[in-house]
Every structure is written in structure tokens, then in C-alpha cells.
Amino acid sequence: MSTRFLTAGELAALDKWYVIDATGQVLGRVATRAATILIGKHRPQYAPFLVSGNHVIIVNAKKIKLTGEKLDKKVYRWHTQYPGGLREVTARKVFESKPDRLIREAVLGMLPKNKLRKRLVKRLKVYLADQHPHVAQQPETLKL
Prior knowledge:
Blueprint: H1 8-13, E1 17-21, H2 27-39, E2 55-59, H3 70-73, E3 75-79, E4 86-90, H4 91-97, H5 99-110, H6 117-121, E5 124-126, E6 140-142
Parallel strand pairs: 1-2, 1-6, 2-5
Antiparallel strand pairs: 3-4
Helix pairs in contact: 2-5, 4-5
């Protein structure tokens, strides 16, 4: 019995666009749903070495919720590659300045750490308001 994988063109023809409204939703639940759709595990054509997922649009990023004390206790760290260059910022500061970055970081952490990661995250679009420029793609609304 042979296994046939779809080509990149055949997979691209099956692509869909989904809209997730983040108003009042918990960050982790939105990120989990978005990551699953981006990876493509919900599709019968799923293969871990192919970009077989769909596109995801997340709107109303500034209205997302964090549970518990995560706004003050969750810390984002990065290093500038200079001596003493460890930088830290709390989730509250990130949420006040760039709420779309919170969602993008959460989804990025749930994607596989391999060569496909950059290509998968390009399919994620996050917008602060409820308007988005992807009306021509006829996105479907997802309920969480």
C-alpha cells in the first residue's frame, strides 16, 4: 500500500482563511486554536514536513484576556547578544504597548521548532481592531 502526499500546488488550492475574534477570550485558548489550524493537524492531508495548514486572522487583539496574575508575573526575556544584555519586560507592558505581540509570541511558542516555523507564522495575521484587509479571501469565522 503506497502513501501519496499532495504537492505544494494541490495543498495551496485547498487553503482556507479563518477569522478568530479575540474579544473576551483567554490568550492561551486563542493561541492553541490558531496554532492547530496553522500546523494543519485538523486536515486529512496533514504531514509534519509540509506546510499543510490554513491561514488565520485574529482580530480585536487589544480585547484579549489573561487569567490569574499573568499580567504582572509573566515575563518575556530576550538577550541582545552583548555582555549584560538580558532584557525583561512584563506582560502588562507588552499588552499596553503592543497587544498583537502577545498573541504572536504565544502562537509562535506552540509551533514546531523546525524549518517550517517561519513559513507557518507568515500565515498568521493579528489585528488590534475588528477590521482586516483580507475580505477578498472570504474568511470563515471560527467559534471558540
